[in-house]
Amino acid sequence: MVDCPICSKHVKEANINSHIDSGCISFVDEQNAAEGPQNGTPQVASFFRTPSSKRPAPAAPSTKLVKQECSSNTNGTSTNGTKPSLTTPTSNKRPAPSPSLELEDDSRPSRVPTSLSDQPPSKRSKPNALQRAAPLAERMRPQTFDDVYGQDLVGPTGVLRGLIESDRVPSMILWGSAGTGKTTIARVIANTVGSRFVEINSTSSGVAECKKLFAEAKGELGLTGRKTIIFCDEIHRFSKSQQDVFLGPVEAGTVTLIGATTENPSFKVQNALLSRCRTFTLSKLMEGDVVAILKRALDVEGPSYEPSELVDEELIRYLASFADGDARTALNLLELAMDLSHRADATKEIIKASLTKTLVYDRSGDQHYDTISAFHKSVRGSDPHAALYYLARMIQSGEDALYIARRMVVIASEDIGLADNSMLTLATSTYTAAEKIGMPEARINLAHCAVALASSPKSTRAYRGLGNAMAALKEPGVAALPIPIHLRNAPTRLMKEMGYGAEYKYNPRFVDGKVQQEYLPQELRESLFLEERDLGTEIDEAMVGER
Questions:
Q1: pLDDT-derived band at 101, boundaries 50, 70, 90
Q2: CA pseudo-torsion sign 66, 70, 75, 78
Q3: Boundaries of each UBZ4-type domain copy (predicted)?
């Protein structure tokens, strides 16, 4: 007969393994358990005993053992007659509980025994050096969904929150701009469902590391039933071939993938992987959400910084509007403002001037294409004010001046076209000026051309006519229709003998250049590609009352 090293119950030595496998429920010798151990010493099998030379140093009892300690009697034995499982290498004696200890249901103490009064109360541990070095934005990262602001997906009635609380976490792609909470939501998901959480970054993790993580996740799932969530930040930086490595494990359910991206996943994430994941779009934080985040940070971390009265409601709202929906930027600015407020000569104006502006324009991302698109459409809509605004945003963000000038050359023919042919000359001259002069002086040439294009009359006749001709080529056989023989080139005598160009009428030889001559293939003689009108015929209902 031996005592189980886990529950201290009496079990036959032959049944000890089966007893442990059953969770310490079966194969218990109830008769011997009632009699208690002989000589007050539990009979533990030798293969469960740790050699004295390898026994660890004594450690303070953890709070998990409080109930077990409290169930011991004044003789140092537990209520079932066995010694408590917590022992030290030097002594098996236990401190007796206070006589005033009252037990509930003969097992639970109503309060902690006085013998443990020397143990410090449970409290929040002091931050270590790494935590102290972390920026304010990292320290204020929410731990629950209730602390996540501005995202209805994880709100009280949010779709994503409902899936998570029902323990049905799908593989997903979180798409949103910087500072909207993609990483935070992924970490809260892992904490909520109790899964193993592994965080990788596509800029530093390769295929070999991912395959290793998949093998570990498969082993963890098989042995313990615990799922693994892999959070891949900046997943759009993985090449399409690198993204292939996720297909098998995600489809088999070996891992739950949460990918975060600031780019449109339709263009940056492989279709096969995208079809195996659900895409959730995180909205840009409103100014009120950022204000709430900053106030929470000021309440929690403010005593550590002790900011002056300069950091008030007005400054917080200024920082929130300055951050442009980026919570991380707002918190970093608040941390800087609290530090600057301690200076002797500090004023609100000095603090505002000292803040470094974080550009929200990415020359290789969606902002790059969205801004030039807004600029083009503003010129097309004859709004010089909007055109100048988007032009200024691109210039301030360091956009290539030649890229902007090239787009204006296209606008001159696409949107102004036949209404003012001189605009094409102006646009090409602007490109040459930007190429020869360079920035920052070339910004003046760009503004000149942008305003001229926006203020010019518009005509899309040539642009639409080309579109009509291109559409005709899609018809069967149209692209290969024979060229009329009188329009063909005849560089050789053989071609001339075959009649190439023989009946061609050279227009400059005739009055006003007018002749009776067909130029289209026989099958297209009735086709008209160039329309008479400069613009369309539709009427905007919103403009009816203003006409």
A1: very low
A2: negative
A3: 1-29
Whole-angstrom distance, CA of residue 547 vs CA of residue 542: 10
Q: What is the mean pLDDT of the chain?
A: 78
Distance CA 358, CA 367 (A): 14
The alpha carbon of 128 is separated from its chain's Cα centroid by a whole number of angstroms, namely 28
pLDDT tier for residue 90 given thresholds of 50, 70 and 90: very low
DSSP collapsed to 3 states, 362-404:
CCCCHHHHHHHHHHHHHHHCCCHHHHHHHHHHHHHCCCCHHHH
- Closest by CA to 230, choosing from 135, 158, 144, 243, is 243
Residue 355, φ and ψ in degrees, nearest 5: -70, 135
Comparison of pLDDT for 543 and 104, the residue scoring more: 543
pLDDT score at 35: 52
- The 8 Å CB, 24+ separation contacts for 362-368 are 362/262, 363/397, 363/398, 363/399, 363/400, 365/262, 365/263, 366/262, 366/263, 366/264, 368/399
Per-residue confidence at 366, pLDDT binned at 50, 70, 90? low
CA distance 232 to 183: 9
Residue with more model confidence, 447 or 120: 447
Per DSSP bridges, beta strands 103-104 and 2-3 are unpaired
Q: Residue 414's pLDDT is what?
A: 92
Contacts of 164 (CB under 8 A, 6+ apart): 154, 189, 192, 193
CA atoms within 13 A on the CB side of 48: 15
The contacts of residue 487 (CB under 8 Å, 6+ apart) are 501, 504, 519
Residue type, 254: T
Q: For strand 108-109 and strand 103-104, is the pairing parallel, antiparallel, or unpaired?
A: antiparallel
- Close Cβ partners of 296 (under 8 Å, ≥ 6 residues apart): 140, 147
CA torsion 153→151→364→447, rounded to 10°? 130
pLDDT band at 131 (very low <50, low <70, confident <90, very high): low
How far apart are the C-alpha atoms of 47 and 56, rounded to whole Å? 17
Cβ-based neighbours of 35, under 8 Å, separated by 6 or more: 81
Q: With H, G, I as helix, E, B as strand and everything else as coil, classify residue 91.
A: coil
Q: Which residues contact 298 (CB under 8 A, 6 or more apart)?
A: 307, 311, 316, 334
On whether the CB atoms of residues 324 and 178 are closer than 8 A, the answer is no
Q: What is the pLDDT of residues 493-517, one digit of tens each?
A: 888 878 888 888 888 888 888 888 8
pLDDT at 61: 46
For residue 434, what pLDDT is reported? 93
Q: Read off the pLDDT of each residue in 189-201 and give the average, rounded to a whole number.
A: 84
User: Which secondary-structure segment (H or E) carries 40?
Assistant: none
Contacts with 194 (C-beta within 8 Å, 6 or more apart), sequence order: 226
